[in-house]
What we know:
Layout: H1 2-23, E1 42-43, E2 50-52, H2 55-60, E3 74-77, E4 82-85, E5 91-95, E6 98-100, H3 102-106, E7 113-119, H4 124-127, E8 133-139, E9 145-156, E10 161-164, E11 167-179, E12 183-198, E13 200-206, E14 209-213, E15 223-241, E16 244-267, E17 272-298, E18 302-321, E19 324-343, E20 349-366, E21 369-386, E22 392-405, E23 409-422, E24 428-439, H5 443-446, E25 450-452, E26 457-460, E27 469-480, E28 483-502, E29 508-529, E30 534-549, E31 552-570, E32 575-583, E33 586-590, E34 593-597, E35 600-610, E36 615-622, E37 632-638, E38 642-649, E39 657-667, E40 681-682
Amino acid sequence: MNILKSLVLIVSLLMSKSLYAQDSLSSTVDTLEIVEVTTKRIQQRNTGSYLIVTNKIRNKHFNALSMLKEFPSVRYNPINEQIKINGTSGIAFQINGLDKSSEEIKNIPVNAIKGVEIINQVDGLHLVEGVRYVVNIILKEDYHGFDLFARNFLIMSPTGNNGKDIVACEQPSLSMQYRSSRWDVNATAVYGRFDWNYPVLAVKEYDNKIMKSLDYSPSNPNQLTTRNEFAYRIAADYRINNNNIISFNALYNPFKYREKTVNYFKNDNGDDIGILEDIESDTKEHNIKISLGYKTKFFDNWSLGVYSGLNYVFKDNMNCADGTTSVYEQSKKYSFSKLNTQYTGIKKCKLEFGATYISNFYKTSQSLISAKIHSNRYNIYAFGTYNPSDSWCLRVGLAGIGIHSANEKRFNFQPTIKLNFTSPNENLKFDFGYVNTPNYPKLYQLSEATYKTDRVITHQGNPNLKAQTSLHQFSGTIAFHDIALHSEIEYNRNGISNYYYQNSNGNYILSYENARFFSNSTILSYSLDLSSKFNLEAGIGFCHNSVSNNNFHKKSKTRFIGNAVLNYYNEKKAFSVSLEYSKDKQSMCLLQGIKETGQDLCNLTIQKVWLKGRLRGQFIYALPIHWGLSSWQHEQVDAGFYKTKQSLNLKTYDNMFFLRLSYQIHKGKKTRILTDSGIYDDETKQGRNLIGHE
């Protein structure tokens, strides 16, 4: 009632003043010295899918990507800045609804961010590309001007666990952002040098010999890698008006990569047998990407997006093993065109139609041999979303996917269904879904170029692999308050596995074969606020996978995973500390062996903000703690005629530290920050973003 009375008072005063002036402009007008307007403000709550970015959150995180830690469903790795949502990395990123790369997300000024949302009902264009979730960064409308950032990422091993290279990584970058009412421009230049050295123990058995490598250690590694890389990126969005936006993206990424592995072998009795295995590879690559997009809204209920792009990759490769050198060139020419249309004119419904066309041209040249692989892919899809209430959402769709290549011409249908429920108070949520996603072989899996990987093994791709396979994904999540249970099942009857065989000349060949893959991961996660400064996050679960085909018996492996993170944040000093204990090593079954990925790690993260947010620092220390954690990462092969086991000593990460620094210069429009300690009404879902709603 106070609001209504105040508004009536203001309108009455304005109307009376206007009428009085019309009667007699020369008459004396009384001036009202003070008008006090009272209103009620609503405190917005963060939910499981939307994060309201406050100054506290801005000072708590290093960049927009690390802000995703605030979501219970998100797992953020501070070392490599990788994101997983409910255990999957099938994630796309957007800024104000426009697709962007994760690098562009990291370059956003945190002061420009209004909110972050995770979209699990992604549009059809993303679904047919295997994207499960979209992270959309929402910017403030009144944040304009230039931002210049100088950043550096440093990795050091001061205790000698990286061999002679104390500095394992140095990655300085310079980026510029410009934002106005019409333009959004992001330009970045990055240089990176990486000198990673690994102690890898090898056991090999072939030709009636059993050989073990010397005991290499973190201080005496035998696998040396060097990578020099540049990345130049520019992205620009131009708003013609509120309904029309043009976007442009370009990337040039040249790099050089060198790897050298040396093994001195002894026999099974420990005697030196004088066999030296010296393997070296050298790669030079140029990667160019260009894309253009246009989004428009018309007839009130229609929206249209049109996108087109090119990707060129050129690679020069050299491999040398046991005195045999192979030199070959590879290239990829990739182009795409995409169209997406949405209609929202039906009450509680949204319809979506679209199509994509992709052309892929691979070429491999080696000596007098030239192999070419050309494929055309197209996709036509239709999706419908039905919201009978604020709590329920049903999404169904069907895509028709075709592929034309020299080896295969086929067309199949890929259905999708997702069901979501959120209780009115948002304490209970669940979603279930089925997605059928196309998978395609990689260039190295198809390339017929040959090179030796050790003294006896020759690598050669298989151009007869299935040109396109279907990955069936079933997922379900149930969340109650801060507890969530997520399970996911994946099945691909034509996945790709390493395959060792002897050719007609008796040579040992490493190639690839299609195989049936099955996996299931189930994770129970929990988040608890211990106090105003302390928070605990924990998760426990398991990963199971298996593989088989007509020529091999089924192999399966189950591994338990888990993590616990204790967070501390001092808002007054803009200082945060996180202690993480993680068991994240997983096993992937192959037709003739097992390959482990990920690692177990215990690390400490410290972050501080200075100069009102202009200077940010993040320090990560890999603690030399291995209680209950695995110290080895294995890769095993058993092909009968050839057996090998390679073990990476994960203690090479002990005492490493990772340092990120970022300094920002802003010039442009600044917004006032109001400090308000008033008591607000709690926000409800129905009244969100409404002022004075009762």
